[in-house]
Amino acid sequence: METKQFVVIGxxxxxxxxxxxxxxxxxxPDGLESAFFSIYDAKPFMGxxxxxxxxxxxxxxxxxxxxxxxxxEALMPDYTIPGLDKTGEVLAVxxxxxxxxxxxxxxxxxxxxxxx
Amino acid sequence: xxxPDFMFPVTQGLVYWVIALIFILLALRWARHSMGxxxxxxxxxxxxxxxxIQALNIPIPWGTxxxxxxxxxxxxxxxxxxxxVFILTLVLLVQGFIFGDGGIVAMGANIINMGVVGGxxxxxxYTGIRKLTANSFAAAFIAGWAALFISAILCAVELAIAxxxxxxxxxxxxxxxxxxxxxxxGGITAVAxxxxxxxxxxxxxxxxxxxx
Lengths: 116, 212
Hints:
The complex is a heterodimer. Chain A has helices spanning 3-24, 31-39, 52-66, 85-111. Chain A is mainly alpha-helical.
């Protein structure tokens, strides 16, 4: 397989995953969040009932412990475009995938340039 | 496993950022000396694929989900732990700044956990296990699993130092969830390696024995 063909197929696979991800992805908390909520009694260790109030209190408590009040306003928080529902989620992941492609291509091109 | 800012004190975040920057500089040095311009499009595609598949949270038991990290795959395919650091640093920058996934203060720790541990455990796990088993895909599976599991263990230790998690429950909960999530990492690492080895065995730094 030629490089061009490999790259095109690779991009196609990445985009198919990007479009499918918002429909297939689980809404459950990830491993770190689950551990956090379980430790703060907002969710059973081996169960799936999340207590939203306890979860919020846990986040406030952790922020008080670490004293870190820094907050960054992301452009597309949680892989969504605010106000666009499912379309926004698909667009967000697709935009992110294309952005990654361009960013890594650019950085890698500059970085890979030999010293001489 | 992206640590958000509220779980991490600022001073500790800066310490991890300094350590992460050392690895980022080494990764840039690797890119300059070893990446080669012909690999640039392949590296970009690999990074795009890793970003997309990270957005796919797969359900695991206990009301929890897990997703791939991909540093082990990058390190195995490109033949250097620093390939994992290089790609994951850029992935985590975009995830943190654009998508609010993972903190900015905590990003240094996230780069260490996922990029550095993922890259080093992935690469040396793969090359080491491959010598023992003589099966590249079994080695990729185990290395992918171990990369994710050890990242999670380190993350639990960091959060214990931060005061966010007590040490023993932190290790138990993070370890249990990520022992399962590691199966996703290992499985996708092995399958992706197989697909790349089938399509383009020449780009692999270490041949797998599959021919196109």
